[in-house]
Please model this.
Amino acid sequence: MKSTVFNVLMFCLLASTVFPNPVTAQQDIPILKSRSKVITIVDGDHVKSNHWTLMPERHPDIYYVELPMKPHSVTFRSDIDSITFSVNYGDQYDFAILLNDKVVCATQVRAAYRKLQPYSRTASDRPATGITIPFSLGDNDKIYIKARLNKGKFLDFQFDLGCGGSVIKKSSVLNANMQFDGTANLINSDGNNVVPSSSTNHLQIEHLHWDGLPFVVGDNMTRREDGLLGNALFQDKVIEINYDRKVLVVHDFLPPIDSKYSKHKMILDGVVPFIQGTLSIADEQRKGWFMFDTGAYTSILSSNKMSPGSKLFDELQKLLWNNQATSSAPRLSVGDHAFAGFNYSIRNHEGDDDRLGLLGNDILKRFNVILDNQNGLIYLQPNTLARDPFRNPEYYLARVIVIFGLLLIAASGWFIYRRQHKRGRKDGLRAVE
Model:
């Protein structure tokens, strides 16, 4: 750990001006020097480039670690210096960032949850095998559970691990007995919009109850769901998604893991999980993180090597050349699990190089999953859906285009033939005359 330490006079000054708790002159207050107002944070395996903007007006400015229950290291890295803390659950770590040798920014690292949303149970027993929540798998491969808000009627909620909070569909508000008391910025497929928010709601899922739960209103949903629920409900739990039994199981601690499961690293962006993997497109191979998004049907890949039309062109090429053409279709792998021929869309790659895109549930449904929010791990076991064929719209579109093209060629040929035939008859008649 590289850091500098002020002299006794500066310690006293810092203690009296920027830190809320008394600090004696004998204590060493770690100092991180910086010439930039933007700091990179390395939180365990998660490199957050230019993530932290200095705010000297806060006393202190608090950073909550990503996986507070897991002992790990957290590093703040400036343009000229770095400082590392070994964090343990429940502890906090004070230090100061000295900007341009003048401005002191009191900073604190907390190994705690920023906004934990605990639940209570109507049943007194706590089963050793976890709390079971049945679900159905929609025709869009998404997970649906029954829940009700504010003692209203039971509604259909999508369990969406790509969702950073809890969302009610605009047309379902009347069935949720919801009172709005503010607004919030909601970022989703509709863009970044200011939407109504409700700060205190009662949610019931089976025997589990949440009080004081915030919701926002969204409108980018289908007829299938009344809202979205995600990992924010289970930040300190272990979640099991069993597609064979069609149940979610919520565990207080990691259960015994069958040897058929493979183990993979996980990071969190807020409460949204990302799994480590590799993306290969053309001659480029990148290792990084895929969003683990049960709320997306298809996978979305971040790359500048392909355009949105490349997928259709690839299907046409394979069809016309009887699958002998060299495919430029992407391939991805998560540990020893490799995928090709899956449905996907392409978006331009922006931001960190290690962000590869997201995995949709047409891939994720093929595994029974144990998501360990406590230790930052995801366990995968291939299930009975593993051999299901991928639904690829471009596969059929390519064939429609080829058939239409052949029909157009045939029609053009028939038209030319008929025209020449008529002309020949007219020439014959003139010769007889």
Notes: The first strand starts at residue 31 and ends at 34. DSSP finds four helices and 32 strands in the chain.
